Amino acid sequence: MTPTVTFAELGLSAPILEALTEMGYVSPSAIQAQAIPTLLEGQDLLGQSQTGTGKTAAFGLPLLERLDLSKMHVQGLIMCPTRELAVQVAGELEKMGKFLRGLRVAAVYGGDSIERQIKFLQRGAHIVVGTPGRLIDHIERHTLHLEEIHTLILDEADEMLDMGFREDIELIMHKTPEYRQTVLFSATMSPEILAMTKQYQRNPVQVKIARSELTTPNIKQLYVQVKGRYKHESLMRLVSFYNLKRLLVFCNTKRGVDELVEQVIVAGGTAEGLHGDMRQNARNTVMTRFRNGQLQMLVATDVAARGIDVDSVDGVINFDVPMDEEYYVHRIGRTGRAGKSGISITFVSGRDWGRLKDIMRYTKTQMEAVTVPSLAELWVQKQDSTIQEISSLGLNDFITQHYDMAERLIAENPDVTHLVATLLQTYIGNPPNLDQDRDLNETDKGGRDDRASGGGSFRDRDSGGSYGNKRGKFDRGGDRGGRSFGNDRGGDRGYGGPGRNFDNPGGRSFTDRGPRPSPSGPRADSEPMSRLMLSIGHEDRVRPGDIVGAIAGEARLPGNRIGHIAIHDEHSFVDVPQALADKVISAMNNNQIKGKRVKVSVAS
Question: Residue 240: pLDDT above 50?
Fold first, then answer.
């Protein structure tokens, strides 16, 4: 793509171009310039692109162009992994189609009133954006008809597969016309993605954004080695030192989010958390406060933060090093947007050093090392910024109205230096007690800090809290529509009995599952396995994806190492590596799946 390429040259119509101009779009991004002409021609496409590269417009603009607005039926279907992303994509489509008269876009996802969604769909929609579970809810209720769609889009397909949505995705695909345009966007090209492409796409054009383009030069990327027990205090110092007014802070676990929010509030900051245990209305309230500038910090897990799109975020702080390199790109991409500068700071403690080096290799970026400022450095910085702030005020009519008062003060306090110092004391307070300062920095790279806690410590991850696997996919709770694990159906749909196949043309049952093929790494059936029994079954409406999500999230066991799953009426069996059986039992016993406390034991 050359700098001279414009949206008009890509073949977009006048109403679309008018909307893009109003939205502030100037020229296409790399993924947009490559994808839009291909999709306008009706070809299938496989796109590899990260968050922040403009992929929503890349697939959304051609879809809008190909709609027949005179026909009130669903013509385009977009599947997203989380409700936040579904809401964001639907909102962007409405903005880009602002001048398309009669356009109707519906967002359907768990955690929201299904009755309200049904009423909207009954009035007609041209595009439906939804999460897999809720889409199936509407299909089974016959409130969503896919017989006439011409475009099917999977956004962040790798995320949906990692969340255990493959069976749901396949079910939905079988409900769509065979001769449709199929568009698949993914951050990675795993064997599972490539297999899906081979099965469901016809000669797709592949477009890819090079890894060198994953991070923007507008973001200053820093890292700081801190002692784990001082991470909360280090956060407050760095926020003050870099004068961050609105920032996103990422933790790997929900418990880490809650702990950090509490610590920030105790320290006098304003913060709220965003994670999977929150209902949708609570999430909306938090996001509204953050967008309106009522919150300084929004603390979130990776899954819960999907779909967050807030302008003017000063910085991103990785309170926990992300468990996956791609998540680092997703996180920091939320600052430094629209040509503005941003900053990202990653906390490194104990054994995090190896993961940080992996991230730098992946992004081809050398982060700059900084230290946690001392109290003396903070005070100097505060003095400098105060002087700069006051000096930049300049003269205006309102200031001159106070000249009389100023002259009276000087007359009564001839020592002007003492007078100004008194006013400054009122303005910024007293200097800190330097005798109480302590060094919060850690100097031993890759060393172990046994007391490292603060939001997802290594010590905590097997203790029955809510933790993700290596890729951080399973943020337990309602990120998928209020379910404890698995998809986002949110309890709005019922399930048939054992062996129900949902009218799948292949006749395959989606209820029970045999051995799982592994997309990468060791196969589950290549190592000695132990069979565990769980006190939950068909009567509790549990599905294989729920069990996989629970074990992967709580025991940090990659899904490709979980073997055969058999679900019966009142209990279920699952095969796990023999060497890890005790760990799985410890992590899962008395935990919850689908809102029910589960007992786990070795099957007799």
Answer: yes
323 touches 468 (CB < 8 A): yes
- Number of CB atoms found within 10 A of residue 247's CB: 27
- Token pair belonging to 369: 């090392």
Please check the confidence at residue 339 and state whether its pLDDT lies above 90. Answer: no
- What is the per-residue pLDDT for 309? 65
Helical axes 325-332 vs 353-363, angle rounded to 10°: 70
Residues 107 and 194 both lie in one domain: yes
Tell me the pairing of strands 205-208 and 342-348: unpaired
Based on the domain organization, do 107 and 189 belong to the same domain? yes
When divided into structural domains, the chain yields a total of 4
The verdict on residue 455 lying in a domain is: no
Are 200 and 277 in the same domain?
A: no
What sign for the dihedral angle of Cα 8, 14, 17, 22?
positive
Q: Which residues contact 469 (CB under 8 A, 6 or more apart)?
A: 323, 552, 553, 556, 557, 558, 559
Say which residues have a Cβ less than 8 Å from residue 66's Cβ, sequence separation at least 6.
40, 42, 75, 76, 150, 151
- Full 3-state SS string of 245-306: CCEEEECCCHHHHHHHHHHHHHCCCCEEEECCCCCHHHHHHHHHHHHCCCCCEEEECCCCCC
Do residues 98 and 19 touch, judged by C-beta distance below 8 A? yes
Residue keyed to tokens 């001048």: 99
Q: Token pair of 408, please?
A: 């009276």
CA distance 38 to 288: 37
Average confidence (pLDDT) over 30-46: 92
* Tokens 């106070």, residue located: 402
d(CA 482, CA 127): 24
Dihedral angle sign, alpha carbons of residues 583, 584, 587, 590: negative
Residue with the bigger pLDDT between 384 and 146: it is 146
* Domain carrying residue 411: 376-434
Token pair recorded at residue 313: 């975020």
Model pLDDT, residue 327: 80
| Residues 90 and 224 placed together within one structural domain of the fold | no
CB 483 within 8 A of CB 384: no
Question: What CA–CA distances, in Å, run from 180 to 55, 151, 174, 294, 478?
Answer: 20, 6, 11, 45, 32
The confidence score (pLDDT) of residue 284 equals 77
267 pLDDT band, cuts 50/70/90, is confident
Q: Are 186 and 59 in contact (CB under 8 A)?
A: no
